[in-house]
Inverse folding.
């Protein structure tokens, strides 16, 4: 099976002091180290498991500057055969439609059977690039896939819906799936593994190479434009619970019941 | 199927001369987790020699139970090195990518944040806010580097070790500088978990920082950093543990230990300080310099000290199934000795013993305290009196 996985490098904001950047439309992330988007880790692992199971080849795609190449090295280290990075000075600031257009162009005419994306990205969280890319490719898609099984010429996808519901859909190949976290257990990528992968080349493509002009990408080619960003207003209520641990625990359970949504 | 080979394809049996093993049982007989874990160095060594299917050894999860205390290797009459063979198997597991998720988190955090605790680099010096600390980032230069270590820098309990040490150094006018937020994990545990590539990256970063500062001596808070920098880094400069520095300062009369600390205490020898670095006397010299402290010895002390199970990356692994943990046995022994406190000099021992104190219900009976913490209680520094610095 000929597989393609699409990945993104995002800032790890777990411990970062987040602030709105001076442009008022983005988040300052200089202090946050970069990492492979969490959903993409699962998409990559799923792609590698499929490659191991069915044979064939795996290509990894990324839209991003050179400092994002580590994500592709990880893909190569765990079993991708080829990696493609697309970058151009016109690309920063583009929305999901433009990203999907660039990725579609990067895929070219190569006949892939299965395209895998993470269900969303940890930075902007749109969850749109996958389904938009499927449209661009003209293939059926399923989002938030939590289980993926091979059928003859098709794949069976179990999708995670709201409130604990699931949906099973069969897609004819070629198809695109966006992967939900928890579908598998991503393997550790060792430093020696990444070092060995440095010997594998990464294809660098510019806009001209993929046949796009700068009016169809970046901010100019985006249908969605972030106008302003602001931090949520600080909450008004915080209650400190005091007393012996068992009484505090009981009060916490009561509060969770009262406020709803958890228990 | 081939016999067990290392990541470069060399047969492990040849590389570590395992055919010389007598199967005498000295290694297994000294293993601190042998009673509760299927980990058995005799079996691993035997199978590395005879078993045709090396992958089956790599599939064994019990290699994660090893605390890398090196008792097995120290006890081997043929000078074989079972501890390193276990590490080789861990490396093969790491390269396969199939490792416990807690270990994965620690390793990835080290690469991303320079510490195994998932904390940001910017917060590395948060412990130092209320104590006098000399860091290169504040323009303090010295050819002596105090390597603070990740756990004393980030762990809320262990930050007290670093704060106490800062107060003692200040009171003694002891010159040093720290790397501040530029310090990264020493890699001791990453090496022992088998992540050789990550260890090399951390080593290079720290070695470069030391070279730039033209450091001539390193003092470490943790015996694990001590082992990494002294043994694994090959630095060609002296690397000493904080207890050795404190013993020197106390011996020279430079530590103003004035207040009575009326406590009966037993010193728990950390494996990485005692057995692995031969530092037994320095912490005891510090204890005897604290007025009011009455030191007593555990039955198992010095070379025979009982491993707390915190080494070899075990801080990021689940505990071993059933049965009493060594740290629990240790605090029970301490209670039997009738001491007020167990004193140790290692952040991992401090954490495992603190846990054991709580899980054995001895929380009110005794305290677990770091050597520097105990000494700092004896300082009459009001908060912190000004310390004259030697040579400045």
């Amino acid at each position: 099976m000929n597989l393609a996985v699409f990945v993104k490098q995002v800032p790890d904001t777990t411990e970062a002091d987040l602030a709105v950047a001076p442009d008022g439309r983005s988040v300052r992330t200089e202090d946050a180290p970069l990492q492979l988007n969490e959903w993409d880790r699962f998409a990559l692992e799923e792609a590698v498991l499929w490659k191991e199971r069915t044979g064939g080849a795996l290509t990894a795609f990324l839209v991003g500057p050179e400092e994002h190449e580590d994500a592709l090295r990880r893909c190569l280290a765990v079993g991708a055969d080829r990696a493609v990075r697309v970058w151009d000075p016109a690309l920063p600031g583009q929305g999901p439609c433009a990203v999907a257009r660039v990725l579609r162009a990067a895929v070219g005419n190569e006949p892939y059977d299965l395209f895998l994306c993470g269900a969303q990205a940890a930075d902007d969280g749109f969850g749109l690039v996958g389904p938009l890319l499927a449209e661009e490719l003209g293939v059926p898609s399923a989002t938030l896939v939590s289980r993926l099984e091979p059928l003859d010429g098709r794949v069976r996808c179990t999708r995670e819906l709201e409130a604990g519901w699931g949906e099973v859909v069969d897609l004819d190949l070629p198809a695109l799936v966006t992967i939900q976290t928890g579908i598998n257990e991503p393997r550790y990528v060792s430093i020696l593994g990444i070092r060995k992968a440095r010997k594998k080349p990464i294809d660098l493509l510019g806009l001209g190479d993929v046949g796009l002009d700068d009016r169809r990408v970046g901010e100019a080619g985006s249908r969605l434009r972030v106008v302003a960003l602001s931090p949520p207003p600080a909450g008004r209520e915080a209650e400190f619970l005091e007393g012996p641990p068992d009484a505090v625990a009981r009060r916490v359970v009561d509060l969770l019941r009262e406020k709803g949504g958890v228990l | 199927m081939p016999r067990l080979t290392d990541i470069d394809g060399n047969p492990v049996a040849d590389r570590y001369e395992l055919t010389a093993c007598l199967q005498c049982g000295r290694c297994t007989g000294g293993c601190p987790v042998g009673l509760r874990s299927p980990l058995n160095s005799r079996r691993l060594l035997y199978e590395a020699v005879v078993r045709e299917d090396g992958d089956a050894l790599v599939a064994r999860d019990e290699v994660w139970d090893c605390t890398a205390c090196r008792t097995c290797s120290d006890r081997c009459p043929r000078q074989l090195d079972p501890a390193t063979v276990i590490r080789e198997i861990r490396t093969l597991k790491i390269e396969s990518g199939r490792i416990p998720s807690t270990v994965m988190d620690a390793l990835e955090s080290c690469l991303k944040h320079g510490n195994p605790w998932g904390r940001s680099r910017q917060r590395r010096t948060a412990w130092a806010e209320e104590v006098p600390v000399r860091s290169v980032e504040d323009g303090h230069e010295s050819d002596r580097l105090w390597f603070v270590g990740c756990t004393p820098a980030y762990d809320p309990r262990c930050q007290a070790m670093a704060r106490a040490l800062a107060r003692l150094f200040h009171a003694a006018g002891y010159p040093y500088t720290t790397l501040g937020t530029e310090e990264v994990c020493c890699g001791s545990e990453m090496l022992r978990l088998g992540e050789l590539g990550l260890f090399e990256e951390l080593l290079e970063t720290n070695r470069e920082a030391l070279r730039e500062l033209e450091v001539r001596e390193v003092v470490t808070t943790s015996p694990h950093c001590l082992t990494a920098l002294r043994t694994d880094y090959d630095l060609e400069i002296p690397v000493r543990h904080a207890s050795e520095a404190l013993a020197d300062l106390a011996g020279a009369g430079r530590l103003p230990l004035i207040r009575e600390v009326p406590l009966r205490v037993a010193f728990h020898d950390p494996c990485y300080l005692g057995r692995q670095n031969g530092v037994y006397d320095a912490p005891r010299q510090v204890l005897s310099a604290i007025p009011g402290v009455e030191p007593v010895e555990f039955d198992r002390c010095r070379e025979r000290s009982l491993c707390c199970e915190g080494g070899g990356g075990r801080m990021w692994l689940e505990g071993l199934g059933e049965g009493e943990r060594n740290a629990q046995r240790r605090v029970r022994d301490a209670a039997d000795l009738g001491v007020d406190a167990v004193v140790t000099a290692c952040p991992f021992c401090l954490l495992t013993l603190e846990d054991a104190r709580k899980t054995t219900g001895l929380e009110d009976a005794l305290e677990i305290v770091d050597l520097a913490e105990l000494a700092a209680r004896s300082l009459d520094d009001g908060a912190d009196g000004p310390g004259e610095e030697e040579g400045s």
Observations:
- The first strand of chain A starts at residue 2 and ends at 7.
- Chain A has six helices and 13 strands.
- The interface with chain B takes residues 12, 14-17, 31-33, 35, 78, 185, 187-195 of chain A (CB under 8 Å).
- Chain A has a mean pLDDT of 93.
